[in-house]
Amino acid sequence: MKIVLLNLSHNSEKLIEIAGRTSYLSFDKQMPGSEKKFIRMIIKNGHESVLEHASATFWVYEISRVLSHQFVRHRFCSITQQSQRYIDEKNFKYIEPFSVSTNSEAHKIYVNLMKDIEKSYQKLRDIGIKKEDTRYILPNSTTTQMVITANLREWRHIIKIRGEKAAQWEIRKLVIEILKIFKNEIPIVFSDFIIDDDNLVISKNPS
C-alpha cells in the first residue's frame, strides 16, 4: 500500500478560521496562532461545516479492488480510478490477506487460483476477447490505484468510520496512514483523533 499526498488547501487551518469567523463576524479576535483555539472550539461544538472549505487529494496505489469498492461508497469524494477496461491485466498483481499468507494451506490454494486466473485471462485475450470483457474473470484482490479528493469534514467522517476496529483491515490500514499524514500536516483539524498503537481513538477533549 502506497499513499501520496498530492494536494492540500493552502494554509488550510487559517482558511478554516477565516470561514468560521465570517459566520461570527469575530475577525477582531484573529491573530497569529488563533486558528488553533478556534478550530478546537468548532469541532467540540459540532460546527464542522466550515471544515468543508479546505480539501485534500491523495494518490493511493497497491490496494485491492475490495478496498476501492468500499471507498467509492463515500459519495462526497471525487475519485478517479485505474481502468480495467483499457489496461491489460495479463500480469495482474494482487493483495493477499495476512490470514491467508500466514496459513500454508490457504496460501497455496490462493496462489494457485491466482495463477489459474492469470492463465485464463491470457487465453481469452489470445482468442480475441476484448480487455473490457476479459476483466470479468479478475478477482477482487487485483490491485488498483485511485486519486481521491475530499473536503476535510468528509475526511474526518471517513477516518472515523473506516478507522474503527470493526472496519475491514485493508481500508482501516489506509485511513490510519492517511490520518498520520494529516496529523503531520494539519494537526489541529485532527487533534481529537488519537492513534494508539495503530488503533484509532476519538477524544472528546481535543488537545
Structure overview:
The structure is a single chain. By secondary structure, this protein is of the alpha+beta class. The chain has two domains: 2-80 and 143-202, Gyrase A, domain 2 (2-Layer Sandwich), CATH 3.30.1360.170; 85-137, no CATH class. It has eight helices and six strands. The strands form two sheets. It has a four-stranded antiparallel beta sheet. The chain has a two-stranded antiparallel ribbon with strand order 5-6. Strand 5 (193-196) and strand 6 (199-202) form a beta hairpin. The longest helix is centred in the middle third of the chain and has 23 residues, at 104-126. The protein is elongated.
Question: What tags apply to this protein structure?
Answer:
4-stranded antiparallel β-sheet, alpha+beta, 2 domains, elongated, single chain
Q: Classify the helix fraction into a percent range.
A: 40-55%
Provide the gyration radius in Å. 21 Å
Give the helix/strand class: alpha+beta
Main β-sheet, spatial strand arrangement: 1-2-4-3
Number of helices: 8
Strand content: 15-25%
Helices and strands, in N-to-C order?
EHHEHEHHHEHHEE
Q: Biggest sheet: strands, sense, closure?
A: 4 strands, antiparallel
**Average residue pLDDT:** 94
Shape: elongated
Question: How many strands in all?
Answer: 6
